[in-house]
Amino acid sequence: MSKWRRKAKPTLPQRLLVPLLMVIFHFTPSAAIDLVFNGFEASDLDLYANATLEPFPSSAAPAQRRHRSRYLSLTANDTFSLGRALLPSPVTTKSANSSEALPFATSFLFSIAPVPQALPGHGIAFLFAPEPGTLGATSSQHLGLFNLSTDGDPSDRVLAVEFDVFQNEEFNDINANHVGVDRNSLTSVAAAPAGYWPDDEGGAAASFVGLTLNDGTNYQAWVDYAGGRLNVTMAPVSFGRKPRRPLLSVEIDLSDLFLDKMYVGFCASTGRLVEHHRVLGWSFSNSNFSAADGLITADLPNFIPPATESDANSRRHLVIGLYVAAIVVLLSILGIWMAISRRRSRKRSTEEVCEETIEDWESEYWPHRIAYQEIVTATEGFSNGNLIGRGGNGRVYKGVLGGVQVAVKLFSQTNEEEAKHFAAEVSTLGRLKHRNLVGLRGWCRARRTAAAGGGDAMILVYDYMENGSLDQWIFGAGQPLDWGSSVRILREVAAAALYLHEGWGEAVVLHRDIKASNVMLDGSMTGRLGDFGLARAHQRGRALGTTRVVGSAGYLAPEVVRTGRATTATDVYAFGVLALEVARWRRAAEEGLPPLVAWARQAAAMGGEAAVVDRRVRASEGYDEGEAARVVAVGLACTRIAAAARPTMRQVVRMFEAGEDETADGGDDSTSLLLDARLKPAMRSDKAFASAGAQRQPHRHLTFEELRHSLSCSTSLSGSDVILEGR
Predict the structure, then answer these.
(1) Minimum mean pLDDT among 63-67, 327-331, 440-444: which range?
(2) Fewest CB within a 10 Å sphere: which of 327, 367, 460, 646?
(3) How far is CA 670 from each of CA 124, 675, 678, rounded to the nearest angstrom?
(4) Is 409 one of the annotated binding-site residues?
(5) Closest by CA position to 573, among listed 502, 639, 643
(6) Looking at the domain 44-56+67-299, which fold is it?
(7) Average predicted confidence (pLDDT) for the chain
(8) Given pLDDT bands bounded at 50, 70 and 90, which one contains residue 697?
(9) What is the pLDDT of residue 254?
(10) What is the tens place of the pLDDT at every residue in 130-161?
(11) pLDDT at residue 427, rounded to an integer
(12) pLDDT in the model for residue 724
């Protein structure tokens, strides 16, 4: 570590010397920090998550840097990686005799380089944090700064300058290559495209020069704060100096954000997009705005991939361009020929499909069977233009059948497991009729001839749901759902589940996969429960036998994971999770976060139902605080650890209708369950509420990793159902 200070020039007017000295002495902190790192040692930084120190190449370690021969690498060469590196001790950020934030100046040399054969993302940030560690931050678009719950929380007390290479609409990012100033949120208070204003010969700023953050170039950034103004400047290291005009200049008061001392450092993350995030040198001072002059910018390693280095032979590139143009022309001709051939092949393939012999279980549903050729015509040959969704077991197309718009699900596989899912939907949903269930209009099962590739074509035809699924509305980046619609949809799903459990005279139907993505919304935003691929029916009074563990992570009742046995209480549990998701706008299971149920129970115990409701929900149109408390209470009651202590779906429906002062009637204890859930949200016991005065034992909810492990051993779900992935 080295220190460097510039001497005052003798031309300073004498009359300004005394006031300037007064300002300097006023703002100089009692614990002045003046750090310069030309490379790092293990004792210089505390590293968290995937952050490591990597050796400089021998050619990039001159004498001034040999005793610190490592650079900081914040992320691993892998998806969904995050890292954070902080000074071991907090720095003073407020004067001892004032509440004003102290000035500071920092500069760092960094490189964001692509990984071969991978799309680059997501970004790096310089930050101030109130405590050490990652503080629950997640990877992907959250940059290792926040997570879904903490983003936007004023209690975070985080200031960051982000260098972001992905455009996230939910954070109002200006583009996929920008610099932003973040205060407690990834929605920047100010942002600008990455670049700099070079100085012309007269000292003024010339035309703006744009930069590509993630091309591997070594950049230098400067972040200065004084007098309530934060300046951010950057330039390529090769530029050799700090541009006079900053890229960002923001009026921002940090007095109410900073504590007396804050931790300072860097963080970065990747998602499904991967890149390297490196810091090669760093200066920080709260007393010397010239500390950055001590950074060594010569002989730095080159991280630019060979394919992106400057052109060395323009004629070679011209030849390559001509070859590419010729190939494009040939591919265009080939594409036209293939399109014509595909149409002919599609016509032949439809002619080579013959209907399979009807099995015994299908004979009962013959009136709803649809010819394969009709479905092909309705979907325009399963064209990509009609593709509206895809999942782990098939694709969904829109089409027109008999003048009515329909949704057509084509199973992607024809193995025994998918055949069971197909049969389950036909044998249950084919006979169920309720306004809050997705209507099954028909199906098709046809045997392809050998010439057509063989195998079975299994197809289900549903009512078309114009407004997609509920998860798209509460977790997506589009228009938020108003509060009244949210509660109404929950009531409609509860009504559907009640019909399955009690309203169908033939048997009890267990859905076994109630979740937000299986709640569909029609043109009038009516909630309809769909996807009966895991549904099972059994006679009343007789329990369903033990099966493999099936369902979705976060929605599985604890007893299902332990025993594999599903009951109506397991559907109630899943519904309770859904209610908590609607109140919190957070998925049931997210990597890096505690399970929603456990978190909600703890939050309600400490701050009541209001603590569970997300601030975005409170800001939604028509929000009603009392109704929100009722939704949370229903969710907590339905997700009790003991199956016998949960309400029935009939009680759930009545709980939604119960008011604050409503009392139980006719021996029905729905209101008492509601009040019990509201007054004792922190109750944790396998025998809780099952019998009065029972011995209470503490319990814990399954963690995300335990859910994932149990499912990976015995579930039929696809990976996307179990592991929630970011962008």
Answers:
(1) 63-67
(2) 367
(3) 51, 9, 12
(4) yes
(5) 639
(6) Jelly Rolls (2.60.120)
(7) 79
(8) very low
(9) 96
(10) 999 999 898 888 899 998 778 888 999 999 99
(11) 66
(12) 29
Start-end of CATH 2.60.120.200 domains in the chain: 44-56+67-299
Query: Homologous superfamily of 465-661 in CATH?
Result: Transferase(Phosphotransferase) domain 1 (1.10.510.10)
- Rounded to an integer, what distance in angstroms lies between the CA atom of residue 607 and that of residue 39? 46
Query: Is the bond preceding residue 317 a cis peptide, omega within 30 degrees?
Result: no
Give the residue, 307 or 119, on which the prediction is more confident: 119
Return the active site residues: 513
pTM greater than 0.70 (yes/no) = no
Q: Assess contact for 74 and 68: CB atoms under 8 A.
A: no
Query: Is 632 exposed, middle or buried, given 0-12, 13-18 or 19+ CB atoms closer than 10 A?
Result: buried
φ and ψ at 316, to 5 degrees? -60, -40
Contacts (Cβ under 8 Å, ≥6 apart) of 115 = 77, 274, 275, 276
Only one residue has tokens 């949120």, namely 185
Compute the distance between CA of residue 241 and CA of residue 427 in angstroms, rounded to an integer. Answer: 73
Q: Which residues of 90-109 are buried (b: 16+ CB within 10 A; e: fewer)?
A: bbbbbbeeeebbbbbbbbbb
CA–CA separation, 523 vs 581, rounded Å? 23
What are the C-alpha distances in Å from 310 to residues 166, 217, 246, 299, 320?
24, 11, 27, 18, 16
* Measured distance CA(375)–CA(483) in Å, rounded: 38
Place of tokens 């997300």: 614
Token pair of 221, please? 């950034």
| H/E element, 47 | strand 46-49
Q: List the one residue out of 354, 219, 365, 243 whose CA is nearest residue 297.
A: 219
Amino acid sitting at position 698: P
- Chain CA centroid to CA 196, Å: 32
CATH for the stretch 331-464: 3.30.200.20
Say how far apart CA 659 and CA 439 lie, in whole Å: 33
Structure tokens belonging to residue 571: 């559907």
For the segment 101-128, what is each residue's pLDDT rounded down to a tens digit? 999 999 999 999 998 877 788 899 999 9
Q: What is the pLDDT of residue 231?
A: 97
The strand pair at 190-193 and 178-183 is best described as antiparallel
